[in-house]
Amino acid sequence: MFSLEPLIISGREVLPIVEGGKGVSVSNGESSGAWAAAGGVGTFSGVNADYLDDKGEVVRQIYHGKTRRERHDELIAFAVKGALHQARVAHDMSGGKGRVHMNILWEMGGAEPILEAVLEQAGGTIHGVTCGAGMPYRIAEICAKHGVYYYPIVSSARAFRALWKRAYHKFSELLGGVVYEDPWLAGGHNGLSNAEDPRKPEPPLPRVIELRKQMSEFALDRVPIFMAGGVWRLDEWQEFVGNPEVGPCAFQFGTRPLLTRESPISDAWKSRLLTLKAGDVLLHRFSPTGFYSSAVRNPFLHELEERSLRQVAYQMHAVGEHDQPFPVGARGRLVYLAAHDKAHAEQWVAQGFTEALRTPDSTLIFVTPARAEEIHRDQVNCMGCLSACAFSNWQQNDQGTTGKKADPRSFCIQKTLQDISHGGDPESQLMFAGHNAYRFASDPFYAGGFIPTVKQLVERIATGQ
What we know:
Blueprint: E1 7-9, E2 12-14, E3 17-19, H1 29-37, E4 41-45, H2 68-94, E5 99-105, H3 111-121, E6 128-132, H4 139-145, E7 149-154, H5 157-166, E8 178-181, E9 188-190, H6 204-217, E10 225-228, E11 249-253, H7 267-273, E12 281-284, E13 292-296, H8 299-309, E14 311-313, E15 324-328, E16 333-337, H9 339-350, E17 355-358, E18 363-367, H10 369-380, H11 413-421, H12 454-462
Parallel strand pairs: 3-11, 4-5, 5-6, 6-7, 7-8, 8-10, 10-11
Antiparallel strand pairs: 1-2, 9-13, 12-13, 14-18, 15-16, 17-18
Helix pairs in contact: 1-2, 2-3, 5-6
């Protein structure tokens, strides 16, 4: 018989069942408030969250600034308003039960001023902050300033050690937990390092035991570890529960909360989740963040894959095998390709992929004129949603640029995530999901297209299923 003991999280005894904080309006106040009301930990996304106007309609994030810097400032203002709105909704819906956390990405544009402003104005509606996608050194200092627990997301003991040594040891009393996110199975952005092979997943237990050993060296034996990425049924994680080598642990669910009645994603997205098969989620590296990420294979990802396949190396002058002239751009400026690559390029041009776009790696990719125009338009319209963006070359610094050529092999992540989270076609936009998403189709709980309430889902999870 599966048994799940309560745990003290953010100062209150709750079920160790945590909603993962999916970004850009996908985990909102309604879903996280319902999760907290069910006795667990709800997590709303503080990444460009929605807020409502006086009529109760979502205020779409339309930018009016003429420069990236001006639009970046607008983005920060949107984010603060949205996070505060969702925090209030979650607080009200929780009815004083459970805990409400906010999730942010450390590499999102304006992460620090957004978090500072939200916590300053939240008035006790937020009990904890989870943060990943980067190395969030200052999360501890900011949260401690406002008396809020913090929960860094890491994928290795080594990453946590670096965070602790540099910053967290100064604010240990508010370290509420450490989220271990499996870098091969989690949805969204994944924490794979250069030392790890994306094609060779490692089992989580040894990595978590290593993390616990590292935490014990710092006298953090009672600080819980949150298991995230690949968590579907808790009876599949028996070796973690009550394991003295793991210590106190909770379980974070990112994918299953997508399919609830309170989940704000579209009915088309929910329906698509029920049809997925094993292997339908791709671990890829097209994200403009530079991180690996996991999303459903669909025409959006297929186009990115094909875009990179239509790629050849070039030289500005004839060098070695790169001795074949090839005209590029409206002015027909010559670059030099290898003979076999020139044959490929001419074939792609004949197929309609007539626009050759330069990448930062001295390669050309070939796209249609319509796609080239879209890429250029999206790069020009950049609003600085990341601390550094490979696609547009924006960087959150005095210069406002990475100093590198913009990379047309990537995409505007803000645009596509805003579109899909507000009713856009899940086939033509980026659809993040964990690698267990295919289990919706085979889990008897969802038979006949059943979509539970959050309360029903939490109760089901608590049984081990």
